[in-house]
Amino acid sequence: MIGILIVTHGNLGVEIIKSAELIMGKQEKVENLTLNLGDNIDSLKGQIKEKIESLSSDKDEVIVLTDLYGGSPSNAVLYNFKNFDFQSIAGVNLPMLLELLSQRKIEKDLNKIVDNILNAGVSGIKSLNEEMKKM
Amino acid sequence: MIGILIVTHGNLGVEIIKSAELIMGKQEKVENLTLNLGDNIDSLKGQIKEKIESLSSDKDEVIVLTDLYGGSPSNAVLYNFKNFDFQSIAGVNLPMLLELLSQRKIEKDLNKIVDNILNAGVSGIKSLNEEMKKM
Predict the structure, then answer these.
(1) What range does the domain containing B89 cover?
(2) Complex ipTM above 0.85?
C-alpha cells in the first residue's frame, strides 16, 4: 500500500490525519512531520529522508503532502527528490487527503492517483454561497 | 476587520490557524469550532450562530472556512445562511487562509476577497514534481 507522509508548519499534518480518521476510521501507513519555530531545516530534511525510507521499505510508493508551496516544509521535501523517487503535492486539504486514502485502496496507477487527488483538492474548494444558490 | 471562523472535524481548524501564525505572526478575529465524534450537530449550529454574531458585532463582515463540502461542519454552516449574511468557503488549506489574512488588511471589496482566496486555495495545490521540472 502507498505510504503517505504529511509535512507541515506546526501540527496541521497530525490534525488533518485525525480529521480524516474521524470520517474514514483508523488508517495505516500515514505519517507526519512538523516544523516549528526555531526548528532546524536540515534536521527536517533528514527526518523526511528517514520517513520515506521507512514508508518505502516494502518497495511501496510514497506520496508526500505539504501545506504550502515555497514554505520550509515543502522546500525540505523538494531537497529529498535528489535521494528518492516519490510524488509530492503542496496545498493539502481534507478533500485531497480523503481521496488519497480511498484511491490507494482501489487504484494501482500512481500517476492516476496523483491526478485524482490533485482534482479532489481543487474541486473540494468551493463557495458554499454559490452551492446554496443551486439547491 | 473581517472576522474569520474556521469550522472543521477535530482540531484541524485550530492547528491551521496556528500554522498560519507561525508564518504571519499572531492574528486577531480568527476563531474556530470543532466537531468531534459523538458531538451534537444542532449544538454546533448554535455555536456557529454565536461566533458569527460575536465576529460581526461591529458590523464587520464574516468569512467562514470549512474543511469539507458535504461534511457535518459545512452543513451546520449552510444551516446558518438562513440567519445571517456571510461568505463561506469549503476545502480550507493553508494558502487560502494566508491569503485571507493578508487580503482582509488591504482589500475592502468582499467579493474580490472571496475570489482571491478561492484562487489562492486552488493555485496553492500543485505537484512538487512538476514544479521541480521547471527549476
Answers:
(1) 25-124
(2) yes
